[in-house]
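Reposting from the mailing list since nobody answered there.

I have sequence plus structure tokens for a pair of proteins and want to know whether others read the tokens the same way I do. The first protein:
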Amino acid sequence: MRKHDTSNGKHLDLIFSKRECQVFICNTTDQERCFCGRNVTAHSNRDPLHSSASSWNPTYHTFLSPTDAFGTILFQHGAHMLEAQYLRLAFDSRTDHILHLLTKQWGLELPKLVISVHGGRSQFQLPEKLRNYLKNGLMKIAKTTRAWILTDGTNGGIAEVIGESLSSERSSRLRNTRLACIGIAPWGMLENRHSLVGRGKRINYVHKESSKSKSALINLSNRHNYFLFADNGTCRQGGHELILRRRLEKSIGNIRLQSRNRCNIPLACLIVEGDLQTIQTVTQYIMEVPATPVIVIEGSGKASDLIIFACRYMTTSTKAQELRAYVLESIQSMFSTGIKETQVYFSLLELCAEKRDMIHIVSPDSTEGCCSDLDFQIMGSLLENEHLAPQLNLNLTLIWNRVDLARQKVFKSHHNWTHSALHETMMDALAQNRVDFVRLLLEQGVNMSQFLTIPRLEELYNSKAESTNTLRYLVADVRPTMIRNYKYTLFDIGLVINKLMKGTYKSSFSSRKFRRAYTAVMRKTFVSLQPSLLQSVLMNETVTGHEGDTMDVKEAVAFRFPFNELLVWAVLTNRHSMAKLMWQHGEEALAKALIACCLYKSMAEEAADDDLEAEVCEELRKNAIEFEDLALELVDHCHKKDDDLTVQLLTCAQPNWDRQTCLHLAVVAKLKSLLSHPSAQILLADLWMGGLRARKSPNAKVVFALLFPPIILKLDFKSEEELQLMPQTEEEYFYEIDKENLDIEESERLDGTENELEEINDEEQTDVDSKKSEASSVISQRGLIANIGDATTEAEPLTGNKPPKPLKLKKKVYEFYGAPITKFWVHSIAYFIFLFIYSYTVLIRTLPVIEWNEYYVLSYVVTLSMEKVREIAATDGVRTWKKIRVWANSGWNICDTIAILTFIFAFFLRLDPNIIPEARVIYSINIIYWYVRILRILSVSKFLGPLVTLLFRYFYTMAYFVVLLCVFLFGYGVFRQSLLYPENEPTWESLRNVTFQPYFMIYGELFKEEIDASCGEPGLDACVTGRWLNPLVMTFYLLMSIVLLLNMLIAVFNSIFIRKNPVALKIWMFQRYAVVLDYEGAPSLPPPFIIVSHIIILGKLLHRRSRLKYGLFDRSLKLYLDEKRLELIRDFEEECMEDLVKDKNKNERLACSANVHEIQEQLKTIQYKLDAFSSLPSLVLNKIEVIENTIKNKHSGKRMLSISKLPYTMLETPKIRQGDKRSLENLKSNVANIEQDIEESDTSSCSDVSSISGFTDLSNHDHQNSESLAWLHEQMLEGTHPLDLLRGLIPYIEEKMPVGGFDETILGGC
């Protein structure tokens, strides 16, 4: 248990008081004592006032003084000490002071439920079943509601049972929930109470078992953690603690719970057993206004049984008269009361019968399943109060987090729920992360589109999360000047989402349209909308904004896809279970899973950068992996159902997610498993071929077609219809729109000039309208879905029943040179030509005059740099620096930039004839990279690409080993240079020699002439001091570098190959998307002719800007579908999602059924063994009968061998344990009798083995391998006398008895 800081309560004597008697009033039964229970000398005032009054009142006859007993009680509990806070206070103390003490100084949280337990105070025994029923119910309540449980705190009766029930969870699992078991006991009744006197003391309290305490005083229970000792100035008298207890309960019941529909803290009374005072207490609870529900445990005895009997049978006046005598007799016999007192308590039982609707009887023997649990009954009784509205009942179940109560008690009442009531409850359930309640409310028909509004979503983002919430750190990154208790806005959330998506995705919260809607909603301007505007809102029309853009007012108030917004909210606030629930509901499940995965991964990276706990980062990574698996399962399920629709699902533009595709979101989230899925690979292979249809040897066909263009006519191309089903870039999409618009305008112009008559003009106008609709339908059917339900009939205007329409010559040429595979070979061939010319330039002599080869290389590099600028402009991102950041994620782009700048720098140096050699050196270094860049081309290959991936992985790993190698290399190099050349002057050559020779020593060049050079002889240099150290240090250096580091590097490379080789193909498949996208957006002409393409692109851009139509286009490949076609895709996705959930639930049920079947089989096996074991005694009896019959036949006329005297208790099942020793003594006694019988008979004939042949049959028993049977069998074969066998069994039985009784093998042997 957590130690309390008692320093906060060291001034409790200034707030709380105690009471002491100041007037001595003689007790009528004892003249030496006052009514307070003390004699004259025991009063605090040695000369107290005497009074002849006939009654004693603590209010008038006592005085208040500062309390002198508070602190911490230490109970010895096994190896640990249990602590409990205590305080002595007057019975009429202010309850607000008591609540402040409990919540502020003792650190308790306000409860969500208060259970006041009353019952037997003396020692009594509860049945084990009832005790477990009580324990499980109270523990469940304590875990879910953080209830305060009030008892009398004594070590006896029901308080001891309650404390024992909660003790198992007190010090471990409920430490954070602050389990509160509060004992309110009378101060004057405490045993050894004088030891508790002291201010802020920590005292060791001697805990006595209630059964060992014979004193009338009470002993404290060590199972409680808080004690309030009520003091009214009396000694050895009780009852006043109930006054304090009732006042405290009423004060707690007036406190409002923290919720939207503010309701008071509920109170319930639990009755277990009890005395006459318990009956009186129950009457007080049910008669007050509002009444407190009472739960009575059936079968606990005494007062509980009387109350239950009264509620069940004393229902009418007639029955009450008939049962009056029986009840009166029961009260007198049970409590030994007089006639008058019995009449009083009978009247109280009649009141209980009248108010039986407030008394709830519970029993562990109920057959109602979970509804009979004690926790369910206690909470359910509180929900059945008439003074509570259904909305408050629902709110209580939400506070308690008991969805079973809400389902069984609240929603089954057939209450007509209003939308506002359910919406408020849904808001609380979301804010408190009650996943089951949200699911229940969705089942009850809550419309989330009407529920989720901008203010509510913003409130959810500002709600406190029970789990670790990383949102504060994320907002702090985008709002550096964030103040304390800053309220997040949706604009901040939009910036956070943009940051986490790494600039490739723009949140809708960052758009101008949303900003205007947000401003209008938060300023409540929609209240003053004009009637015409209101009508447009109801008709879901749009309203023109200030800048000409349109704004959907209805969408401004509520979100069209609320589950999308709630999923993002749940992910950002780290509510993983809620996020999975939002993923299962609504549309666009695949996109939601990919968004969640990407956000979780980015949040894990941010958490690691912010030095959060390692558990937080690991939790976020696990959440990302879980959503990755969910997305993969959904794609796989869709692929099995319809692969064509799955491909279109991956590539259709999602308007609600910044018009991104699921495939692009998977790339942003780096989901290698999804990109390597067959659906994605089929799509990428189709995109790589473009308009070509060459399944066999496509590379050879493309290369030959490039070398001999007439071959293009012989290639196989896709039809017009198939091309329309392929994803396209945004530029191609708008090009088709412009083309169709021009065709329509041209047809209008021709129709207007050819028809001048008014009658004919009407017919021609109809023709034009039909052409417009046909053209618009063609545009809207780009990426059409032909396999969804009845979509074939809708696609008939496009495809009809006609054969596929072949492409024209112009279209074939365009599709050939626009295919990514063609662009790849064009650029690759141009690159090898550039590399050949560059190599030629470097290998020959460089003249002062620039020749054609240098001009070609320069033009290639310059145009390549222009292509890099175009790539940056076409990269996804809102701002330029974000585009550069995304573009720089590729290492090839950074290396290309460095190589281009290096070449341009060398070219400018080359212009000066004096420094041409230096420029050639830079050229020579620069060309190394251009040769290494061939790996980028080779990575496109399915066979070489994975190897290139492993190569770069090796390179990254080797970089760390180079750092380790440099440590030893520089260490030995400096030592060697300083030792062998002590007279060197400071030159660059000395610095070079530090690393030059030690590095090449790694490869076997040891420079032997310098290791042990001759010196000191005539004509030679003098020997350097310490030169003999060089070979020794070099040996250590070579051991560390060659033997240790290099072999370690080889081992690491081997480990990397083993781990990465199986996934290398998957990594290549993931990178294939970027390759396809790069070549899809690349110009058809390679450098240096690419300048022509750049000029055309720039001209188109200026033309579009001049017409104010479009800006820069998105280069990603998408299917642009109209709303109707998109709905068909969503329907297919939803259907697959439902099937997936059903399949998962079915698999879970099958797994549970398999587990149950396995358990049943194990139980059958155990039952079979038990049955076999139970038949063992009868088998032994039969064998004994065989022995007796044999002995009778051998010894006719002599005394029968008294084997029948063996105790048959031995032959019973091993369940008998207490009689084992007695049975052993009987066995010894019977063996002695057998000895006496044998002495009188001829024992020689008894040694015949055949006389005990029945024993040999035991060898075929199931226990033949046991030790005892093996020994018996061996002894029988040797002709051992049966008496000797019995004598030999006795020590074996004595040896086995401490283990747990007779061994089954012994019984079998007997």
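The second protein, same order (residues first, tokens after):
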Amino acid sequence: MASGKHNIHTSSLKPNDVSKNLITGTFALKWPEENTKSLTPIAVNLHVDYKGYILFCLNKVTKEIECFDIALIHDTRTGKYATPPKDAIKCEQMNIGADVPLEDKWVTIYYGQTFVPDKDLRTIHFCFYSPSLAKEWTDELFRYARNPFLRNLSGLDLLEKIHSKIVNGLVEERQDRKTISVRNILRMFCKNSRDTDKEQRILKALQYTDLAHERDALINPEQFTFDKFFSFYTQLMERNEIDKLLEKNGSKRTRIINREQLKNFIETQSNTRGDGIIDYDQKAKDIIKKYMRDTYLSQNVPESICDEAFLRYLLSFDNLIIDPAKLDLYQDMDKPLSHYFIASSHNTYLMGSQLHGRSSVEMYRQVLLTGCRCIELDILDSPDGEPEIKHRNTMIRSISFRDVIEAIDQYAFKVTPYPLILSFENHCSERVQTKMANYLIEIFGDKMLTQPLKSHPLEEKIPLPSPNDLINKILIKNKILRGVKTTSFSADNIQRGSQGGSTSLNLQRKRCDFGSERYTASPSIYMSVDPGQFNPSINNPVRPKKQYYTNIQQYTQSIDFGMNPKSDSSDEELFENSSYEDVNLTDPRLILNENPRLPTTVTQTVNLNNDAVIESKATKAMSDLVNYVTPVRFKGFGIADQLNYSYECSSFNEDKGQNLIRENAMEFVIYNERQLSRVYPRGTRIESTNYNPYQFWSVGCQMVALNYQTLDTPMQINLGMFEYNKRCGYLQKPTPYCLRFGTFDPQEPTSIENVVVEQLSIKLISGQFLIQDHEPVYVDVEMYGIYADASKRRERIKSKRWNGFQAIYDDNDNENDLVINFSKINLPEMASLRFAVSEEDGTFIGQAFIPVSTLRSGYRHIVLRNQSNVPVHSSTLFIYSRIEVHVDAACENIVDSLMNPLEKKELISSPDQYQPNLNENKQDDPSKTQQYTTTITIKHNNTRQPSSSVDENGSRNQFVKNTQLKNTHLCYCLTIKDVQQMKFYIQEQEKLKDKLRKAAASLDKKIEIEEEKFRKNLQRLNLEQRKNEKYITTKPIRHMSDAEIIHHSQTHNIRKTSLIMQKAIAEDVKSRENRLLDLCSLKFRSLNELEVLHSKNFYNKVERYIIDYYGKLTLRVDEIFRQETAKIKDQVRIQTRNDTKKKLPNAKDGRRPIFNNKILQMNVEAGAAAIRKLETLYNSLCETIAINLRQTLEALQIEREAETKNRFLRYAAQINEIKTNLNLETFNDDNLFNCSILNSALTSSLPRETLTSAHSSISSTLNIVHLQSNRVTLPQEQQQSQEQTDTLIQTHYLNENEATTRF
């Protein structure tokens, strides 16, 4: 809530502003929906209530009123988009009003609680008198239905909707008088006529509100006001928990709380997360003024609120359970596409089962109306040579591809302007694909993006464009013509050919240039990449998980040398199988090295024939339409990272995705930061059921495709998730998912860097079900989020009492006795709660999906929704929730001592007791100390702890004699001078100079013109003063009396005129001087702002370059370590074979197995010792690289701050120089005598405000730069030097201001 204006909430959501024409109503003809009845149009009268909740349809013949909940209207169509039935077109009775085609007067409404166009999604047809009337009703009803306010009504708003339905929909005309039958009210709130207890409760509630309460009585609609209806509601519900809440907050007997008590209540339950500064006193006044009605005056106490008014506030939009601002478009839409979750659909055309369902073009319209931004099209050849959409290898009826494309063109951007992705599963021939391409170009036109944006070319390391960059654009995801594709796993480029369908991988040597160091990388290092484990990030170099071994036997057994003593194959056979001559070069597994026995140094060209078969149907016509969503076969995270093509997209079924998450969750997160991925259901989901989308959102997968035709729990979660951010179909991922070199692992139950861990406690008090016949026995509270947060998935609460309208789940008055506790939420932005209410037999009643980041704590009502996430009935849950910062048990005493220093003084006075833990942490993981100095941390968690029981000297170290890990150039420390000599550094400096030159040019011209005018006026002022000197020679004019001045003015007429002229010129000089100083100040301020902006971007680029440089060094060290480890394993196998050939022939047959095992054990131990030595060298290099990275970033930070301070001093000196020059120009010896006016002008003109503004601006810039770069902590000597420099600048600035003031 914002301060200043005392609004209850800051959301822009507003109720519908209903047109007067729709409130008044109009005549129309309704076409019958049932085909079994006689096809005769029905004369009706249509009108909408004044808040736009319900569309009322009065049958002019039977006088029956049908009520349509506008929130359930999916779409309205007229004109060429309307679909009149064939019988209606032939019916002459439908020809009413204007003589125009029937389609122009026709309105079709799609209405229901599902997206599937069958009996549950009704198609309602009306015919109006004129096309203008039809268009007005079409546009207005669609606007009302799409209003986010209508989809997020509070409990009080839902009661208003039910009241509107009663006074408008249950009305009967009897003897020219409108009445409401009590029987109709009973039928509305009690559908079971045999439930006499519930009926009696309804009648007693009517009696309490002074309304007719006999079963056959009639009620005047004008008397049944909303105030009386609310009293009727409170009597049905009882709401004893509200009375207890009032008593707890100060009202023991009167059931009234005053303003001070209300203020304390609001302040206690307010959620400080995002609420800002709130004037609680004014807010309490506003609430009392808004909710205290005239009907409560009898119990009104000045500045107080009664129980019913207090309940209104608790049910109102002002006390909504979620932050209403999150329902608007509140997220930044300028990030790359890969940084968003995208609402996605699987097999969009299907209406039901995957095998025996039906296809429909209407499904595409309905899915797009939900805000879905990725839809699927399975395309095959039809018998007549046209493309058609059909589920392949099933008996499901096909639909026309062209019809689907036309429907997509109509609805692609009807509810959201952000880019739409069409995922093609293309099984068409080349000729049909050419037709497809022509249809796409013809129908979509400029909507389809056929060329990449100039700002985002399809190149390596270029991120994807943002949703704002692609507004109102359609992207095609279709396989492309690859031809002969030359790829080097160490190269940076993919060349796509135009002929052929096979793929070849040419492993080449690569020249790597990192700063001043150059080295040649062997192609073989990429042959050992494991696609499931490779991660080039310097934060998590790929190493085996950390293990500790108690003896050498455990350690050597943990290393796989590709040999098994118990194998039937001999060592020689094992070696022969791994020789180069026997390698199958056509096996794709060779590229991924899935078999550890295959060699890791192969340089031949490999043809992937399998890919050639898959890509054989791709054509140039369709390939030319594909750009930012280019589908590729997934071949491993390491390969994808090496290629670094953000526009490539891979698809996974849910089983493969789960396997990747299980093995490489962190790598999956990094992969999804760079490029898009799509997940779809497994093929065995015949009935179109869905999987839990959260398991893939938790690793950052963007397009998690679901079956929209099935409104099961996963689909409800999906709809609830994308309800926020204005239902635009895009949700920005939390920050840990958007870090290129992040270390975020969603499977680790540890705290995340720069994320506040929270704990959530909930107390479910009661449930209100105004229209519900069966008891809502169970409420399931489920937590969804990253794997660590979702470990405690579900809490089931059972009702204790049920009075027919309200269920009591917890009657304990103690706020601290909370039943549902989620003790640690590591990533609140990804965590969500789902409340599901069901009957005892499991029948669904309602559900609500609430992200934790939008949850507001305190006493709130949760509005329950249907399966399509729309609030229909006035069903609510009353809860109390508390959100707190999570504190680990080890730190609770410290936090308590900080919060209560007087009570916990003894804890503060003995901090040594916590020191061992800190030291222990440092010993366990030295890299943790780097978390406070840089955002890029190199963790050595995977360092093995070898045993020293094996001698590492002598012949056992022959394997590491010439290792490259001894080369110190692998950890070369990059200096600032090295960076300054780089080409990009010099180019950026030249760019800045050009920008400053251009920016200063225009202002320099204005300054020159103003300076020339200033000098001319100054010369005129000097001339006038010299004229006065001829007449005033004996006595200065400032020493003359009034009589002497009059005498001289009478004696010398010229003197009086000259004095007047002198004064006018002096004033002009003053204004010119002020203008000149303002222009100079504007120039320096503009140049400084330009330099600050450029400096920020420039140093960010330099920092990225440095991080990339050390990342490549770490990757290079990783590659060498992996290569040489594999080489040692090969040498162990060869040595074992040679020793066996030499020694076994001379051994006796009985001792051959013993000798064989002994030889094998000796060589394995020697290999293990060699690998341990390699690991020692490897870890030493990684630690040196980490230290060098920190030192380079520290040096860069010092350079950055020095440059900022020098810039400030430079501009301050220039301003002072101009000021001095103006003083010398104005106050020289010739004009000091009679220039008091100019003296006054200069004293007030400069620019204390100017200098103060400039200083504050630059100081704030310094602070921002310092905060942004706070990741590097300077040494103590550098900090002292920085403080001395700041003091010098401040002293210089104060001296300048004092001199100006004295002058």
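Reply #1 (J.P.):
I read it the same way you do. The mean pLDDT is 75.
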